Amino acid sequence: METKPKCKICRRVGKKLFLKGDKCNTAKCPMTVKPYPPGIKGKRRLGGLSEYGRQLKEKQRLKNWYGLSEKQFKNYVVEVLERSRRGASALGNAQEALIKNLETRLDNTVYKLGFATSKVKARQMVTHGHFAVNGKTVDIPSMHLKKGDKITVRAVSMGKTAFKDMPAILKKIQPPLWLMLDPEKMEGEVIGYPTIDMAAPPAEIQAIFEFYSK
């Protein structure tokens, strides 16, 4: 079985990041079939990492979890750390702030509402202009949403294949507590803000802060 690059990312960081959507929940998921790093089995191991290596792996996990480039992800972390250094927030609050900033991106929100099976697909759908926020078409995946914002599928996109059976699919979706979903209207609303517990990130945030603080 050929392993695609996205699957290799998960194997490399030793964590299932659900980058391939529904395939990640099947027995064919490479993390199930080959639960070790890419390369010759036995030659590379997950254990025995240096502190730097551990911090790097945690950073890679969260960066890839949200599907961001190194530059994008670093900007998010550095911004939060700088606010913390200025006394704008305690370190614990800084961790919450980072997750809030990442979770409330439009592409991630579209994914959490069930409009897409992966964050990659969600980003593509946003970029193609399939969604409106508060009635205005938005094609910027990194747009940050705030409480009260409503995300809807544009009327011109309703007839497209990707949205044909969407109402039935959305009825099976249980969005996180900070979001509300109306399957019939194909509309979501931000009713609160995400916490670390709600997001359940697959990485240790403190280790990521330490990585970028060097």
Please, could you describe this protein's structure?
The protein folds into three domains: 1-48, Ribosomal Protein S4 Delta 41, Chain A, domain 1; 52-97 and 201-214, no CATH class; 105-190, Structural Genomics Hypothetical 15.5 Kd Protein In mrcA-pckA Intergenic Region, Chain A (Roll), CATH 3.10.290. It is 42% helix and 8% strand. It has helices at residues 5-13, 30-33, 51-65, 70-85, 91-103, 106-112, 119-127, 166-170, 196-199, 205-212, and strands at residues 131-133, 136-137, 150-153, 179-182, 187-190. Strands 2-1-3-5-4 form a five-stranded antiparallel beta sheet, with helices on one face. α3 crosses α10 and α4 (70-85) packs antiparallel against α5. The longest helix has 16 residues, at 70-85. It is globular, with a radius of gyration of 18 Å.
Query: Would you tell me the structural class of the helices and strands?
Result: alpha+beta
CATH superfamily of the largest domain: RNA-binding S4 domain
What level of helicity do the residues show?
40-55%
Rg value: 18 Å
Oligomeric grouping of the chains:
single chain
Our count of helices gives 10
Number of domains: 3
CATH architecture classification name of the largest domain? Roll
What is the level 1 CATH name of the largest domain?
Alpha Beta
Globular, elongated, flat, extended or rod-shaped: what is the shape?
A: globular
Extract low-pLDDT stretches: none
The helix/strand series, from N terminus to C terminus, equals: HHHHHHHEEEHEEHH
The biggest beta sheet is recorded as: 5 strands, antiparallel
Strand order of the largest sheet: 2-1-3-5-4
